[in-house]
Amino acid sequence: MTSIDPAAQPAGPFDPPGVTWDRVSPRLITARLVVLALTFGLPLVACAVVAALVTPWVWIPAGVLAALLLWTVLLVPRQVRAMGYAERDDDLLIRKGILFRQLVVVPYGRMQFVDVEAGPLDRKLDIAKVQLHTAAASTDAVIPGLAPDEAERLRDRLTARGEARLAGL
């Protein structure tokens, strides 16, 4: 877990003053690139085979897929570096996005339960995802790419803080 110095960040609606952001693991970059390679790489290979064996006009969609793959490979590391979370006394802040930035503020008293998830690729890369559930169905409070120990610590801490807020302590 690395922290981002609040003094080095410009103030604004997405960077509240005095907040020290914790970053997600850089292993999330690898996880996302593997998924992108499967998503774009397999159709790209199929287009190349069809273009070589059947008709050359299929090189056009292959080129488009190659350009999209290259663009996303360049974009994913920046997206992961832009992700962060911060625990404050009364709420949890989660931010993400480069072009379309988003800051989610989840008051501890509104949390209903906290999930920790890790799929096969996540387990292989030693990362997990923490998801917070609130009464609002539209809340997108997810922190992907955490080390399993940090995910467990965050789950326990958020659960304890949520129970304390619900009990009125």
UniProtKB/TrEMBL annotation:
Pfam family membership, one: bPH_2
Q: Does the keyword Transmembrane apply?
A: yes
Which residues are listed as membrane-spanning?
Answer: 33-52, 58-76
- Presence of keyword Disulfide bond: no
Q: Entry's InterPro entries?
A: YdbS-like_PH
Keywords in alphabetical order:
Membrane, Transmembrane, Transmembrane helix
Tell me the protein's name.
Answer: YdbS-like PH domain-containing protein
What organism is this sequence from? Isoptericola halotolerans
